[in-house]
Amino acid sequence: MINLLNNKKLLKYGSYINGEWIVDGNYFDVINPYNGETLAQMSGCNPQIINKSIESADQAMSTWKTLTARERNEYLIAWYDKIIENKEDLSIILTLEQGKPIKESRAEISYGAEYLKWFAEEAKRIYGDVIPASVSGKKILVTKEPIGVVAAITPWNFPNAMITRKVSAAMAAGCSVLVKPSELTPLSALALAELAHEAGIPEGVFNVIITDKPQEFANEVIASKIVKKLSFTGSTRVGKLLMTQCGHEIKRLSLELGGNAPFIVFEDADLENAADQCVASKFRNTGQTCVCTNRIFVHKSIYNLFLELLQDRLNSLKIGNGLDENTDIGPLINSAALKKVENLQQEAIEKGAHIITGGNVIGKLLIEPTILCEVNTDMAIYHQEIFGPIATIIKFETEEEVIEMANDTEYGLASYFFSKDYAKVWRVAEKLQYGMVGINTGMLSMVEGPFGGIKQSGFGREGSKYGIEEYLNLKYLCLGGLD
Ligand code: SIN
User: Fold this and answer.
1) d(CA 210, CA 202)
2) Taking a C-beta distance cutoff of 8 angstroms, is the pair 32, 94 a contact?
3) Has this prediction a pTM greater than 0.85?
4) Domains of the chain, with CATH numbers?
5) Per annotation, catalytic residue among 246, 278, 290, 292
6) Tens digit of each residue's pLDDT (9 = 90 or more) over 434-465
7) For residue range 458-483, what is the model confidence (pLDDT) as tens digits?
8) Active site residue 290
9) Catalytic hit among 108, 194, 256, 469
10) CB of 163 closer than 6 angstroms to any ligand 1 atom
């Protein structure tokens, strides 16, 4: 692996705490999902080290929060510059440990870096308020303060961008951060730490805690009185557990959890565009994103035509090693993920669904991009987040019916629909019970937009002008005696 990289210093094998690299036993392997090879042996932290890292982060924050916004901006921009300089190496590391096609890894590194640039600017816009009081002799002032030390638990599907999305907002606000990346993809996180180090981010402000025992990290940061906020991206199941635990300390929480995105193609849609966007949304990262299309609703009058367009596009997708420039679909992350996808597909077939394209496992963790028709509400695949390259198709007749079906889920993260009728666009957008609605597009992730869900997809927003508020406390000053 090391031979593929220009900047060999990006490969690290232990935690980055208070500006130092900690290697202290507790080894576990990082596996390339494409070929099953061991990429690295990582050293995990024990609870004592995690506790020490909380203390040093607290210490570091006492200075960091007093810097001017411009100073914090300059640090974040220096880090951004380092990431862009090392973009190709970071992309290779990402593809090796996560499996996604190299072109998607490059896109993720740029996307992730953009958050640093965005929040570097937002640091300068942490404005307060002066509010007219209802009594004379008093002034109401509102200021904003950093919330305190932040812990972030980040997922394997975006090993770079989900870190920068959280920490850039927290650091811009004046907080120090402890990140626990997924044990499946720690190398990207540590490469980011090396670049933070090279960019001169003061020690203790950005820390990466490596462990293959996620619950140990969660227990320590949740029990700590120093850590004031936990930001988590991952499954709804784990999100619920963390929320219960955080309740004991009334710890602030942001949760970006699972989705079950509907993708509705109305009869008046631009079908070529809808088919392109469906592929982009459904098969991004081999179907392993929380905002991936999960259920495709197609109006009966254009059903056959849309399926043909979709099939044509799937036929040209190339499946294989993410490092190959031409690959569009890489491996799933591990055998448990493959088993889950296979089981969902099998159960749907037993209940009457049928495959019109794909459906085969063609390598260790490689599954063909698949179209599964005649899916209905009796099937688990309709209700669960698939996290794999299976496009499930459902026919509909009326607008009311499809809105009801689209909303019939415990999730509320992303949704998509396609129509050229402006009145319908507004009507449907209002009725969809989701935090994000893509209209005539299947790609809505960008730093300027508030990313986040409702219902059991969680709460809190990342990116946009709203993202920094997650890391700030409001303080109300009532200034009296002014008569
Ligand atoms: C996710 O899947 O959690 C994030 C996807 C994105 O930012 O587009």
Assistant:
1) 20
2) no
3) yes
4) 2-257+458-476 (3.40.605.10), 261-446 (3.40.309.10)
5) 290
6) 999 999 999 999 999 999 999 999 999 999 99
7) 999 999 999 999 999 999 999 999 99
8) yes
9) 256
10) no
